[in-house]
């Protein structure tokens, strides 16, 4: 069984900063079709602030690092998605608090709490064309693979996340500005769910 330590978590945060900066324009373009068009900027700003603040942290409690990441995110990008993502990290961090290293089972607990936090804060559930549709399948897959090596589990979770994203093409949006378009929102993937897939990639690439 492999474990992730503080240095691995910081590397993941660095990966997330890089990935969201690289995908900023793509997320902006997706979001601009029927939304506010600021998703890429929000995510880039949020994860840049998190990594730049925590890169040299002396904290070794992984839960505390992740909770701090959530607080920094919510402060740096106080938009809907920034708040939701921040909530996810704070809830997930709390689930693994007190640990200097985390196993695949701990990762599963982190993501279960992450998703539950977003669902409660955003009052959303699966099938409503949101980030939940790419993150809940990933979280559930991690539970199934909690006895496996973390890399294998995260690869499987990423595949589930990508499948969840693809499924949003056939959904009618229920939240945010895109919900105003109702049936017109069908046919394209959800920008938030796209951000969820990018998040999962960041955890895989440590």
Name the features:
two-stranded antiparallel ribbon; mainly alpha; 206 residues; 9 helices
Describe the structure.
The structure is a single chain. The chain has 206 residues and is mostly helical. It has one domain (4-204): DhaL domain (Serine Threonine Protein Phosphatase 5, Tetratricopeptide repeat). 67% of the residues lie in helices and 2% in strands. It contains nine helices and two strands; from the N terminus they run βαααααβαααα. A two-stranded antiparallel ribbon has the order 1-2. Helix 1 packs antiparallel against helix 9 (191-204), helix 2 packs antiparallel against helix 3 and helix 3 packs across helix 4 (62-76). The chain is globular and about 45 Å long. The mean pLDDT is 92.
Q: How would you sum up the major sheet?
A: 2 strands, antiparallel
Q: What structural category characterises the helix and strand content?
A: mainly alpha
Radius of gyration in whole Å, from Cα? Answer: 16 Å
Termini Cα gap = 16 Å
Please bin the fraction of helical residues: 55-70%
Order of strands, main sheet, comes to: 1-2
Q: Which stretches of 5+ consecutive residues score pLDDT under 50? A: none
CATH class: Mainly Alpha
CATH-defined superfamily: DhaL domain
**Average predicted local confidence, pLDDT:** 92
Strand proportion: under 5%
Order of helices and strands: EHHHHHEHHHH
Q: What is the CATH third-level topology name?
A: Serine Threonine Protein Phosphatase 5, Tetratricopeptide repeat
Query: Quick one: how many beta strands?
Result: 2
Total of domains: 1
How does the overall form come out from the CA principal axes?
globular
Number of helical elements: 9
């Amino acid at each position: 069984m492999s474990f992730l330590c503080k240095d691995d978590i910081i590397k993941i945060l660095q990966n997330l900063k890089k990935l969201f900066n690289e995908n900023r324009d793509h997320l902006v373009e997706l979001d601009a079709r029927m939304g506010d068009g600021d998703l890429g900027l929000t995510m880039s700003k949020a994860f840049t602030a998190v990594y730049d603040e925590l890169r040299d942290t002396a904290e070794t409690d992984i839960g505390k690092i992740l909770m701090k990441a959530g607080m920094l995110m919510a402060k740096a990008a106080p938009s809907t998605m920034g708040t939701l993502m921040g909530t996810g990290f704070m809830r997930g961090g709390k689930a693994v608090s007190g640990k200097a290293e985390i196993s695949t089972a701990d990762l599963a607990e982190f993501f279960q709490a992450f998703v539950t936090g977003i669902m409660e804060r955003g009052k959303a559930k699966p099938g409503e064309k949101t980030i939940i549709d790419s993150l809940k399948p990933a979280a559930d897959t991690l539970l199934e693979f909690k006895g496996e090596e973390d890399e294998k589990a995260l690869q499987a979770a990423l595949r589930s996340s990508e499948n969840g994203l693809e499924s949003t093409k056939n959904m009618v949006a229920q939240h945010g500005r895109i919900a105003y378009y109702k049936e017109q929102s069908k046919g394209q993937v959800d920008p938030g769910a796209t951000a969820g897939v990018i998040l999962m990639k960041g955890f895989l690439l440590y």
